[in-house]
Amino acid sequence: MTILAVVFCVLVLILLITWGKVNPFLAFLIVSILAGILLGIPLGDISQSLKTGIGGMLGSLAIIICLGAMFGKIISDSGAAKKISEVLMKSFGEKYIQWALLITGFIVGIPLFYNVGFVLLVPLIFSVVYQYKLPAVYIGIPMLAALSVTHGFLPPHPSPTALVDLFGANLSTTLIYGFIVAIPCMVIAGPFFAKTLKGIESYPLETFIPKEIATEDLPSGINCFVTALLPVFLLAGSSVLPYLSTGNATLDGLFAFLADPIAVMLISLLIATYTLGIHQKVKMKSIMDGYADSVKDVAMILLIVAGAGALKQIFIDSGVSSDIADLLGGWDVNPLILGFIMATIIRVSLGSATVAGLTTAGIIAPLIATTGANPNLMVLAIGAGSLMFSHVNDAGFWMYKEYFNLSLKDTFKSWTIMETIVGLVGISMVLLLDAFV
Description:
Elements: H1 2-18, H2 24-38, H3 43-77, H4 80-92, H5 97-109, H6 114-132, H7 136-153, H8 158-167, H9 171-194, H10 221-228, H11 230-238, H12 249-259, H13 261-275, H14 284-318, H15 320-329, H16 335-350, H17 353-364, H18 366-371, H19 375-386, H20 395-404, H21 408-434
Helix pairs in contact: 1-2, 2-3, 2-14, 3-8, 3-13, 3-14, 4-5, 4-10, 5-6, 5-7, 6-7, 7-9, 7-21, 8-17, 8-19, 9-11, 9-19, 9-21, 11-13, 14-17, 16-17, 16-19, 17-19, 19-21
InterPro entries: Glcn_transporter
Subcellular location: Cell membrane
Protein name: Gluconate:H+ symporter
């Protein structure tokens, strides 16, 4: 009966968001209260469960997401993204232009949230299209595949970062595994798949033809590359620090502090503030105004994450999480595949990769303890499922269609299949990793 109540609540959540057009945060709160009632939590205790779930979910996560938004903002506003693109274009030349765009999307996509990265980089695609007279879809898909991969698999993006926290995974380890999974995903869904799309005609709207920015006003290439990738270097490096323990309490405390994701993101932001802001003669007030705007952009994402935390806590406090673990744990199926399938179903139903990942995590979390599944790989398995089969209920689907001025048929043939390839290759790589780690 409790399992049926969970299924019913998930269906209500899907209907509220898709059919009812209810904001996901409000939908999560409504369904959390409904779930609490159906699962037998006393009415007087439901509010406390909501508070505990929201507070526990946001915690350090709110800091990381906000710092990540600020970091992405200065990468965008300083012209660093454009400079990275220019350097890679010159280095690769016209013959390998797709690979230049793929790497640009990957590097710039790490610090930038998906929608910001899309709006920032699509004009760069169109500038290449007009310069080299190449098909827009053929040129654009590799870069967009790279953006999708970073969004689904790599911290500090909201869904993978939240899942790391939910599953008690290690952020640095997840990032390293994420890189291993991401590379074949974006290569196969990008340049390889794009070879089949040369025949799709696309006439990008003139509105999106980029304005030229004077090269002399851009930061240096080395500055842009090093600063944009700084969180990656620091997160990867921080995974080694615990092994450098000397027994000295002061040093051990310092290493523990530097290995914390909050410290990594704050250090990265402070350095970027200087290298891409103050050093470029940008006034501090202008930089801080940009940071304030960036936090406004992620406010709703934080609320959605908080709502998912409330539903997760209801499941825990009602005891249904244990029932789910007992039920699913008895299935003779790899728990990573279960996470992938569940995320895929919710993604197809709801459209949002972030909501799909967080909803799945709240249901699948008990499997981590009962099955011994690798929490770092579970983050990536759910991330792969959350990217599957993007269609008409996904904002990214419509952004791509309208920017590239495509028919629905061609949007399905290019965007939807690209996203599905990313998901399928992603889960394949996760299962391959699972065999070795």
